[in-house]
Specification:
Helix content: 55-70%
Distance between the termini: 78 Å
Low-confidence stretches: none
Structural class: mainly alpha
Strand content: under 5%
Mean pLDDT: 89
């Protein structure tokens, strides 16, 4: 029996809540570009995860909820949009033919994130994961071209799929509103203490060089 959207959202939030105690603040240099999945996401707005919540915390939930929407759209497409489904099937077969597929099989916390860090000026990478993936993709023949009529029909079906995705997204966000309290309670319990600890450590590290009581620090007095 197919699970309702309410059940799927509840289970996705449950899974995120089980993962959240394992979250730790990132210690590496952050990316400059915002995450396209999370930036301005209505899913995160419905969940109450604002800009003050670390991106890693946001991404794990938004990806799990997006999977629900994607699954619903896939079912709708299979039942109602034959041309789009055929195109997706061909693309899936082409993807399976690639020898290197680094974006597959990732945990929700990493799915959809860039494969490589931001480049550093003057320090080029010897290789990149995205570059290796592009080489693998180039070795697989392209799909046969579509006629003008087929392209027009496909665009129409893509539009219908987008409309359905937006409808499901709104329903999911409405359901997600009912989980706000436990989401925010979990952030308060597991995330905020770690952020506060980081800020305290940063404050100590900044104050230490100017602390006269610190034997290793410099005395700022003349």
């Amino acid at each position: 029996m197919e699970r309702s959207l309410e059940t799927q959202v509840s289970q996705a939030v449950d899974a995120w809540l089980r993962w959240l105690p394992r979250w730790e603040p990132a210690t590496h240099r952050g990316r400059v570009a915002p995450c396209r999945r999370c930036f301005g996401s209505p899913i995160l707005s419905a969940a109450g995860l604002g800009a003050d919540v670390p991106h890693g915390v946001q991404h794990g939930l938004s990806t799990r909820i997006k999977t629900i929407v994607d699954h619903a759209v896939a079912e709708y497409t299979a039942l109602n949009l034959p041309m789009l489904q055929a195109e997706l099937d061909q693309q899936a077969a082409r993807n399976r033919a690639r020898s290197y597929r680094p974006t597959e099989g990732l945990e929700p916390e990493f799915e959809g994130l860039p494969l490589d860090p931001d480049p550093v000026p003057g320090a080029p990478f010897l290789f990149t994961i995205s570059g290796l993936a592009a080489q693998s993709d180039a070795a697989v023949p392209d799909l046969p071209p579509l006629s003008a009529d087929a392209k027009a029909a496909l665009r129409q079906e893509v539009g219908l799929a987008d409309d359905y995705a937006n409808m499901i997204g709104r329903e999911v966000c409405a359901v997600l509103l009912h989980h706000r309290l436990r989401i925010q309670a979990a952030v308060t319990e597991y995330v905020e203490p770690q952020i506060e600890a980081m800020l305290e450590e940063l404050t100590r590290s900044l104050d230490a060089p100017f602390d006269p009581g610190d034997p290793g620090g410099a005395d700022p007095r003349p």
